[in-house]
Amino acid sequence: MKDKYTAQAPTTEEAIDKGLKALGIKRDNADITISQESKKGFLGIGQKDAVVVVKRKNAKNPVEDLVSKEILLGEKEPSTNEPEIKEAAEPDDKVSSLEESTDPVEEGVEETDTTHPVRADDEEKVEGTTKKSEPEEKKIIELNEKDEAAIQNVADYIKRIADKMGIDDVSVTINRTDRRVQYIIDTEDAGLIIGRHGKVLNSLQTLAQIQLHQEADNKLFAKVDAENYRDRRQKTVEQLAYRTAEKVKKTKRPVILEPMPAHERKQIHRYLNQHKGVQTHSEGKEPHRYLVVEPSKDNQFKI
């Protein structure tokens, strides 16, 4: 059952009626947004149909359901407390993680169970434990019929989710390189698929990975992308890491970044691990876990 319908008709009222009939609801139970007013034009020239979005009132937002599942494959990191760092960083030291965001988790990340802050070298160790299985991943595999069916089923699954979100022009292209399966979503509503800070796209990838894991015989990894968002976001995160490191070196004070997914925190950990003079660690609970970038101990008391 759809909760949202975009209708087009010669007049606004006709478009609204069309949307109400499609959802099977009355006007009192609908939220109506007029995207484009109709225009009569002159002798048929310049005529435009009305476009309205009819949404069921009190409908459960499928995007929220997706986002709530985002951390299923993410890194489970417990809360931490470091009062010294919190006191040193003032509110204006909090840096935005920028407007663009997030590549979803390409692989299942091992969970950690520690009661201490995770520093850069610690997260690298965690990642290292995952990498021990990589030689197996690098073996060229031959997919069987069940694997092929699972890959296609996930593409259909993504389409069904998009349809529940009210996006009905979605096409999904599948690219595979050995164990890695990429699902490229094409739609005029790419902004809805990506979501604010990439949260919807991350959630779609998480759900795709779960579905692929359940249906395929071999261990496969799903990546969901739209409008080349992943590559653009990676560059954005690297720029954020660089600017933050420069600020910490200049001010000799810690900087708190906004909450971000585990894979992005690791990306910044790895990137700043190559920068002398700064160190990083994570604090907080998922999905609000964040990074603190601070002067390294060797440089902390230098003037």
UniProtKB/TrEMBL annotation:
Please, which domain of life does this record's source organism belong to? Bacteria
Keywords, in A-Z order: Cell shape, Cell wall biogenesis/degradation, Chaperone, Cytoplasm, RNA-binding
Please name the PROSITE patterns in this protein's record. Answer: KH_TYPE_2, R3H
Q: Where does the R3H domain start and stop, copy by copy?
A: 231-297
Q: Where is the composition biased (Basic and acidic residues)?
A: 70-97, 113-138
Q: What is its main location?
A: cytoplasm
Q: Which InterPro entries match?
A: Jag_KH, Jag_N_dom_sf, KH_dom-like_a/b, KH_dom_type_2, KhpB, KhpB_N, R3H_dom, R3H_dom_sf
Q: Where would I find the KH type-2 domain in this sequence?
A: 154-228
A family per Pfam: Jag_N
One example GO MF annotation: RNA binding
SMART domains found in the cross-reference section: Jag_N (SM01245), R3H (SM00393)
List this protein's GO terms for biological process: cell wall organization; peptidoglycan biosynthetic process; regulation of cell shape
Locations listed in the record: Cytoplasm
On whether Plastid is a keyword of this UniProt record, the answer is no
Function of the protein: A probable RNA chaperone. Forms a complex with KhpA which binds to cellular RNA and controls its expression. Plays a role in peptidoglycan (PG) homeostasis and cell length regulation.
NCBIfam families in UniProt: Jag_EloR
Q: How does it assemble?
A: Forms a complex with KhpA.
What's the family?
A: Belongs to the KhpB RNA-binding protein family.
Recorded protein name is: RNA-binding protein KhpB
Give the source species: Alkalibacterium thalassium
- Gene coding for it: khpB
